[in-house]
Amino acid sequence: MTADVEFRRLVGRLRLRHLELLDALGRDPNVGRCARRLNMTQPTASKLLREIEDIFGAALFERNRRGLSPTPAGVAMTRRATLLLAETAAAHAELLATRQGATGRLRLGVFPVAIPEFLPAFCRELDTLWPGLTLALEEGIEDKLLAELKAGQLDCVFGRVVPESLTPDLHHELLYREPTAIVCGAAHPIRRAGAARLAALLADCHWTLPASQGAVYNLVAARLALLGVPPPRVVYETSSVFVTLEMLRHTQLLAVLPLRVARHYARAGQVARVPLTDIESSYAVGMVYRRDGGRNVLVQAVLSAARRAATQVGLGTA
């Protein structure tokens, strides 16, 4: 059987119900639990699984006393099933959007670092390139948004890019670099500290940072070391800008924010910059998208709008 004939056979027999079961088994390789989750009987689920393996012409799971273990083909096909279901859901949402007059729909994940200045400029540029497009925006942190991107639940993500953390199925393009600022609450006494008292106040302060170790922590520790101050004592770990702002408003903590985020909230009176020079840039900000979507005309329009937006707000390219 040629590859083309095999593919046509697959198209003629594969159903969304098959994909639903494959997706469920990829998350939990137990037929009974998946059957209950999909509101079907276990015999029905077992029959569907036999049909799926017959359609693909390969064993996708090995049966053992503990249940099922995916074969290499099973790992690949459950991952593809998840993507296909996500794309089907996206197609339905886009159809509903077009019925309301939209010309399409884009699911966009955004890290907090990319929101001030860049995001509004990007939206203006994209509206010029693709008028009438509906944007479904989701703010989040790196692990969550990249996982949703890989699962087909997002079309692309704007945020901090760490190439070594990206998997082979993801592609990225760097847009600009964002310096980092140390911030405090608007009424924090350190904001008025002179050079003579600054080191002593910094040594007494506690911090909220994304983690007690890692890149941001090391940047802060290196900056404090130049002043002869011990490494930061982290008492709260969070990557949420909203949580950070609330903690700074009600405590005497210090934190780190991307420079443009810090400037944005400082103008609103919600934070103040600690009187230190900014930390060396650590935020390489760019666009991340799935490699299989690289030829998508919408993704290319998004990338073009992103490049224009980065130049428009004076960020330039990295």
Walk me through the structure.
The protein contains twelve helices and eleven strands. β1 (61-64) and β2 form a beta hairpin. The longest helix has 28 residues, at 72-99. The mean pLDDT is 87. α3 packs across α4 (42-56). It has two domains: 3-83, Orthogonal Bundle (Arc Repressor Mutant, subunit A); 103-318, D-Maltodextrin-Binding Protein, domain 2, CATH 3.40.190. The chain is of the alpha/beta class. Strands 3, 4, 5, 6, 7, 8, 9, 10 and 11 form a nine-stranded mixed sheet that branches.
SSE layout and pairing:
Elements: H1 3-13, H2 16-27, H3 31-37, H4 42-56, E1 61-64, E2 67-70, H5 72-99, E3 104-110, H6 118-129, E4 133-139, H7 142-150, E5 156-160, E6 170-185, H8 195-204, E7 206-209, H9 215-225, E8 233-237, H10 241-250, E9 254-258, H11 259-267, E10 271-273, E11 279-290, H12 297-312
Parallel strand pairs: 3-4, 3-5, 7-8, 7-9
Antiparallel strand pairs: 1-2, 5-11, 6-9, 6-10, 6-11
Helix pairs in contact: 2-4, 2-5, 3-4, 6-12
